[in-house]
Design goal:
The structure holds 2 protein chains of 2 kinds.
Chain A lengths: L5 E4 L8 E7 L3 H8 E3 L11 E7 L2 E11 L10 E7 L2 H13 L3 E2 L4 H8 L5 H25 L2 H26 L10 H24 L1 H5 L1 E7 L5 H9 L17 E7 L2 E7 L9 H16 L2 E7 L6 H9 L5 E6 L9 H7 L5 E3 L8 H13 L2 H5 L7 H22 L4 H18 L7 H9 L5
Chain B lengths: L1 H6 L10 E7 L2 E7 L4 E3 L3 E3 L8 E4 L2 E4 L10 H8 L4 E8 L2 E3 L9 E3 L22 E5 L2 H9 L5 H4 L5 E2 L6 H7 L7 E6 L6 E5 L7 H8 L10 E3 L2 E8 L16 E3 L9 H19 L13 H12 L23 H11 L5 H23 L1 E2 L1 H9 L10 E2 H5 L6 H7 L8 H12 L1 H18 L17 H10 L4 H5 L6 H19 L1
Parallel strand pairs in B: 4-16, 7-11
Antiparallel strand pairs in B: 1-2, 2-3, 5-6, 5-15, 7-15, 8-13, 8-14, 9-10, 10-12, 12-13, 17-18
The chains are: A alpha/beta, B alpha+beta.
C-alpha cells in the first residue's frame, strides 16, 4: 500500500525573508507539479533549483524557488520537494491548503522526523527526543487548534454534527430494525438537509483563504483624549506623515483610514478624533463619528497620557470600549510616569497594557507584536466570527465536504440508504475530529435513547 | 444437532455440573464436577450462559435459578473468584410463554415468513416447506396504565437488581417508563416450535409479579383469554469483562482456559454461537501448537464482535450491530463463503464437498463478471430495453457491466435479454450484481481495508513495558498494559489511546529493533 504524501511549513513563524514548505512521500513530485509552474516551462529536474510560480489555476499565489529530491538520499528517505516562498504566513498557508486540495496530507508534529527514523535514518538518542516531541507537540497542537476554533465556528460545527447525527440515527434504525414500524426517510428532505450542512461547511472553508480579516483587513481604531498622541502613533506606524498633527487639542476632526501589513495580515487603522464632550459643532460631529467607528472596529488601541494622572475622561472612554478587544498604551513615558502600569491594568483588566513613547519610538514594536498576536492567535475568531485559520481544520472540513458531496450524488443516483450512509458517516466523523470528539459510539447510543427498540 | 455431535469422531459427550477448574502454574489442567468426578483436560472452555450464579426476579420473588427452570451454578462462580477472576453482574430478561390455543388470531395481524427462503447454509440450494406464521399485535393505553400502576413492584425498579442490563432488549416496564409518550408498543407472537403449542411473546419481557403480568397481557388485542405457561422474568448472572481475554478468547492469566458466550459479556444467540465456534477452534489449535485463528474486522462480523469485546471490554451486555461494522459493504451474507471457506479449509473445518462447491461458485462469479464486462451492446438494440425502465439512452456501444451500474437496471432484468450460458444461483447472482453495481464504494472500502491491514500487520505480541515508555500519555500506558494488544491496529482502537501515542509506539518499536540488532 502506498504511504500518503505529507506537507508542512518547515520554517518557524516570524520575520524572515523566505519560508520553506516541505513535501515528502511517493507523490511528492506530482504534488509539486500540480501547483508549481517553472518560469521557463521546463520539467522539474532532480536536485536542481527551479524558479517559477505557485498558481491556483490561473491565479498567481507566489513567486518561488522549488526543488525536487529523489529518495532515498533525502531526509525522510522518501521523495522530497521543497518550496521556498515569501514568508508571509498567509501565503505559506495558502500554498499548504492548495497542496492539500491536490491530495497532500498535513503532516503531524514530528512526522517528517518520524518517517526519517522509521526508514532507518537518525540514531537512537534522537529517537528518544522524537518520542517526547511527538506526544508533547501533538497535545499542544490539538489544544491550540481547539482554542483557535472560535465560539461561533464551533457552534456552527456542533450544529452540523447534531444534524448529521440525527440523519445517521434515522438511517441506522432503518438498517438495524427493518421489522419496526418506523417512518421511512424522505429522500428530498434528506437531500435538503445535507445540502444545507454542506453549504455551511463550504462557507467555513471559504473563510480559510478569504476571511474578512484577510480580505479586508483587521479594523483597528486608535482612541484617546485629544493630544495624547493618536496621530503621532498613526504616523509612526505608517512611517510617513499623513494625518495633521498640531499642538491644539481637537485638530484631527475627521477619521482617516490607513492600511498596514502586519505579518501578512492587512491591518486597517482608523485614526479617530479625540473623544471628549464639546460644544463646537464640527468637533461634535467628529466625536459622534468616532463612537460609530468604535462599534465597527475589531480592535481598539487606547492611548492614555502616562505622564499625568488618569482623568475622568479616561474612565469615561474605558466605559465606551469595555466590550471591545483593546490594547492600552501608556504614552508619553518620556515625560514622566504619573500613572503606574498596575493602576492601568486595574482599570483594564482584560487588555494588555504597553508603556510607550511614540515620539521616542519606544514600545512600538511591542504594539505591533500584540496586534499580530490578536489576529494570529486565538483572538482571530472572536474578532472575526466563523473563520477557519488552522490548516488541519481546513483539511478536515474539506474532507467532510467532499464526503457530503458524494452522499448527495448517491442520493441523486437513487442508491440505497446503506450506501448513502457510508459517505454521511465519513463527513460526520471528520467534523467530530475537528471538535476533538470521538463520535463513533454516539449513533448507537442515540438510537437506543431515542427509539424504543428490541425484543 | 445432538446426533451430529454424538457421531463426531473423537468427541465424547459427558453431562454434569462443573464446580471448579484445576489450575497449576497458571495453566488449566481439568475440571471438577459436583459429583466429585475429576476430568483432566489440556484445555477448558467456559460457556456458562446465564447460569453462573443465575438469579431470577419475578416481582418481589427472587430465587437462585438458571433459565427455563434449570438450576444455577453458584459453586463454580465462587471457585473462579478464588482463582483470581474478576466477575461482574449482567442482567437480561425473557417474556412469558403462553398457550397458542388461548389466543384469538383474528384480532392480530398475520406476519408470514419469507416466500423465498434464503438458506442459512451454502450447502443448501433450496428450502421448501410450509412456514408457520408469526402474529403482530400492540399494547395500548390500558396495558400501560396497569404497568405504570405497578412500577414499584417491578424488580427492575425496586433496586433488587444490581446487574447491568442491555440497552438492546428493554423490558416492557422500561419501554413504558422511558418512552412515556409512545401510545403503543408492538409485540410478536412467535411459535416456539412445530411440535408444541407454546408461543413466545416477543417484545414483552418483564420482571413484574405474575398476577400483574396476567393482567396486562390480557389487555392486548388477541390476548384477552391468554393462558400463561411460564411467566416472564428477569435474570441476573455472573460474567467477566472480556478485556481479560486475548483475541483467541483465551483467558490472559490462565493458559489454555478459553471463554465464550454470555460469560464474556455478550448478549444474544448468534453472538454466543460465534464465540463458541472460535473458542473451540482456538483451543484445538493451541493444543496442536499452531497459530491462533483470528478473524479481523475486515473479514467477518465475528472479527468485529470479538475485537470489540476484547479491545473495548464489556461494561454492558454487548450485541453485534451493523453500525459497528466498518466494512459492511464487503461483509455481506451472499459472499460469506467466498470470504471464509478458504480459511476454514486451512484449519481443517471444511469438508471437501463444501470446498468444491466454493471453488465452483468462485469460478462462476468470475466468469459471469468477466462476461458482463466484456459484452458490449450498441445503441440500436439496447435503447428500447433501457426505455422500458425509464433509463437514459446511450449514444455509443456500452458494456453490460456499465449498464448494470445504473440503479434502475437489475441483473435479472438485464439477463432477460442477455442470458449467460449457464444460469447462476441466487447467491452467485447477488455477488455478481453487488460487486458491479457498487464497484466504486467497494473499491473505497477495499483501500480503507489495505490501510487497516497495514496497522494490523505490525505485531505487538512481545512483552512491551508500556509503563516505561515516557512519550505515551499515562492514561494510554495503563490501557495498553491492561489490554496488551496484539497489533498496532488493535492498540489504536483502545479508547484513550491517541494517534500520537501510536506514533510514539511505532518509534519505540523501531528503536527497540535497532537496539537488539546492535
Amino acid at each position: 500500500m502506498k504511504e500518503n504524501t505529507i506537507v508542512a511549513i518547515a520554517t518557524p513563524r516570524g520575520e524572515a525573508g523566505i519560508g520553506v514548505i516541505r513535501i515528502s512521500g511517493p507523490d511528492a513530485k506530482s504534488l509539486l507539479q500540480s501547483v508549481f509552474e517553472p518560469k521557463n516551462k521546463k520539467e522539474v529536474e532532480n536536485r536542481r533549483f527551479t524558479y517559477g510560480y505557485i498558481k491556483d489555476g490561473d491565479s498567481l499565489i507566489d513567486e518561488v524557488m522549488a526543488v525536487f529530491m529523489k529518495g532515498p538520499n533525502t531526509y525522510t528517505r522518501e521523495d522530497v520537494c521543497e518550496i521556498q516562498a515569501h514568508s508571509s504566513h498567509v501565503t505559506l498557508k495558502k500554498i499548504i491548503s492548495l497542496l492539500i486540495e491536490k491530495g497532500g496530507s498535513l503532516a503531524e508534529p514530528g512526522e517528517f522526523t518520524k518517517r526519517a527514523f522509521l526508514k532507518g535514518r537518525l540514531d537512537l538518542p534522537q529517537a528518544e527526543a522524537l518520542m517526547d516531541l511527538i506526544s508533547s507537540k501533538t497535545e499542544l497542537a490539538h489544544k491550540q487548534a481547539l482554542k483557535q476554533l472560535g465560539g461561533f465556528t464551533s457552534h456552527k460545527l456542533n450544529e452540523a454534527l447534531e444534524s448529521l447525527k440525527e440523519v445517521l440515527v434515522q438511517i441506522a434504525v432503518l438498517i438495524e430494525y427493518p421489522e419496526e414500524d418506523l417512518e421511512d426517510i424522505n429522500k428530498e428532505e434528506l437531500k435538503e438537509k445535507i445540502s444545507l450542512i454542506k453549504e455551511e461547511i463550504k462557507d467555513l472553508i471559504d473563510t480559510f483563504s478569504s476571511g474578512r480579516i484577510l480580505r479586508e483587513g483587521l479594523r483597528v481604531s486608535i482612541l484617546g483624549k485629544p493630544n495624547v498622541g493618536k496621530s503621532s502613533l498613526l504616523n509612526a506606524l505608517l512611517k510617513e506623515e499623513r494625518a495633521i498633527v498640531t499642538e491644539t487639542p481637537g485638530t484631527t476632526r475627521d477619521t482617516i483610514e490607513e492600511l498596514l501589513d502586519i505579518e501578512g495580515i492587512p491591518v486597517r487603522i482608523m485614526d479617530t478624533a479625540g473623544i471628549r464632550e464639546t460644544k463646537n459643532p464640527v468637533e461634535k460631529e467628529g466625536v459622534k463619528r468616532a463612537k460609530e467607528k468604535i462599534q465597527e472596529s475589531d480592535l481598539v488601541v487606547l492611548l492614555l497620557d502616562g505622564s499625568v494622572e488618569i482623568e475622568k475622561e479616561d474612565r469615561e472612554i474605558s466605559e465606551l470600549i469595555k466590550d471591545k478587544k483593546s490594547i492600552i498604551l501608556l504614552n508619553k513615558r518620556d515625560l514622566g510616569k504619573a500613572v503606574n502600569i498596575e493602576e492601568a491594568k486595574l482599570l483594564f483588566p482584560d487588555s494588555p497594557v504597553i508603556e510607550t513613547s511614540i515620539t521616542e519610538s519606544m514600545g512600538l514594536k511591542e504594539l505591533l507584536e500584540e496586534i499580530g498576536l490578536m489576529v494570529e492567535r486565538e483572538d482571530a475568531e472572536s474578532l472575526e466570527k466563523a473563520v477557519i485559520t488552522n490548516i488541519r481544520h481546513y483539511e478536515l472540513l474539506k474532507k467532510a465536504m467532499d464526503s457530503l458531496e458524494d452522499s448527495l450524488k448517491a442520493i441523486k443516483d437513487n442508491q440505497p440508504l446503506d450506501i448513502v450512509e457510508i459517505d454521511i458517516k465519513e463527513g460526520f466523523l471528520r467534523i467530530g475530529e475537528i471538535l476533538g470528539r470521538t463520535v463513533k459510539e454516539d449513533i448507537l447510543k442515540e438510537i437506543f435513547e431515542r427509539f424504543c427498540l428490541g425484543k | 444437532m445432538k446426533k451430529t455431535l454424538e457421531n463426531q469422531e473423537n468427541l465424547w459427550l459427558k453431562q454434569g455440573e462443573a464446580v471448579d477448574i484445576i489450575v497449576e502454574d497458571n495453566k488449566v489442567k481439568g475440571v471438577v464436577l459436583k459429583t466429585g468426578a475429576v476430568y483432566k483436560a489440556k484445555a477448558v472452555i467456559i460457556a456458562t450462559g446465564t447460569f453462573l450464579r443465575g438469579r431470577i426476579f419475578i416481582g418481589d420473588r427472587v430465587f437462585e435459578a438458571g433459565p427455563n427452570g434449570l438450576s444455577s451454578t453458584v459453586e463454580l462462580s465462587d471457585n473462579l473468584k478464588k482463582k483470581g477472576m474478576k466477575l461482574q453482574r449482567f442482567k437480561t430478561g425473557t417474556p412469558a410463554r403462553a398457550l397458542g390455543k388461548s389466543l384469538d388470531y383474528n384480532k392480530m395481524e398475520e406476519q408470514k415468513g419469507d416466500s423465498d427462503i434464503v438458506p442459512f447454509s451454502f450447502m443448501t440450494d433450496k428450502i421448501e416447506r410450509d412456514q408457520v406464521s408469526c402474529w403482530l399485535s400492540y399494547t395500548n393505553e390500558r396495558t400501560h396504565e396497569i404497568i405504570r400502576n405497578n412500577f414499584e413492584k417491578s424488580a427492575l425498579f425496586g433496586g433488587q437488581i444490581e446487574g447491568v442490563g442491555t440497552r438492546y432488549c428493554p423490558s416492557i416496564e422500561d419501554k413504558v417508563k422511558r418512552f412515556a409518550d409512545k401510545e403503543r408498543h408492538q409485540l410478536f407472537i412467535e411459535p416456539e416450535g412445530l411440535y408444541t403449542d407454546e408461543v413466545y411473546i416477543q417484545g414483552m419481557s418483564t420482571s413484574l409479579p405474575e398476577d400483574v403480568q396476567q393482567e396486562f397481557y390480557k389487555t392486548i388485542d388477541g390476548l384477552e383469554n391468554l393462558e400463561i405457561v411460564r411467566p416472564a422474568y428477569a435474570i441476573e448472572y455472573d460474567c467477566i469483562d472480556a478485556g481479560y481475554l486475548n483475541l483467541n478468547l483465551e483467558y490472559k492469566e490462565i493458559e489454555n482456559l478459553f471463554c465464550a458466550g454470555q460469560f464474556n459479556g455478550s448478549s444474544g444467540y448468534e453472538e454466543a454461537a460465534a464465540q463458541g465456534l472460535m473458542a473451540g477452534i482456538n483451543a484445538s489449535l493451541k493444543l496442536d501448537g499452531k497459530e491462533p485463528f483470528i478473524l479481523d474486522r475486515s473479514e467477518g462480523y465475528i472479527g468485529v464482535l470479538i475485537d470489540d469485546l476484547v479491545t473495548k471490554g464489556s461494561l454492558e451486555p454487548y450485541r453485534i450491530m451493523t453500525s459497528r461494522v466498518e466494512y459492511r459493504l464487503l461483509l455481506r451474507q451472499d459472499n460469506a463463503d467466498l470470504r471464509l471457506t478458504e480459511k476454514g479449509h486451512e484449519i481443517g473445518l471444511v469438508t471437501e464437498e463444501r470446498y468444491e462447491r466454493f471453488k465452483k461458485k468462485k469460478e462462476a462469479v468470475l466468469r459471469e463478471t468477466d462476461r458482463l464486462l466484456k459484452t458490449t451492446v450498441g445503441p440500436g438494440e439496447i435503447n428500447p430495453v433501457l426505455m422500458d425502465k425509464d433509463s437514459s439512452k446511450v449514444i455509443n456501444r456500452i458494456s453490460l457491466a456499465e449498464l448494470l451500474k445504473r440503479p434502475e437496471i437489475s441483473y435479472d432484468y438485464l439477463i432477460g435479454y442477455y442470458p449467460p450460458k449457464e444460469p447462476l444461483t441466487r447467491d452467485e447472482k447477488d455477488t455478481v450484481e453487488v460487486n458491479i453495481k457498487y464497484e466504486g464504494y467497494i473499491q473505497k472500502q477495499q483501500s480503507q481495508i489495505e490501510r487497516f491491514k497495514k496497522l494490523e500487520g505490525i505485531s505487538l505480541s512481545e512483552e512491551i513495558p508500556y509503563e516505561e515508555i515516557k512519550g505515551i500519555r499515562i492514561e494510554a500506558r495503563q490501557k495498553l498494559n491492561k489490554v496488551k494488544p496484539l497489533s498496532i491496529g488493535q492498540a489504536s482502537r483502545i479508547s484513550g489511546v491517541s494517534p500520537a501515542d501510536i506514533n510514539v509506539l511505532l518509534v519505540y518499536l523501531e528503536k527497540r529493533k535497532r537496539e537488539k540488532n546492535r
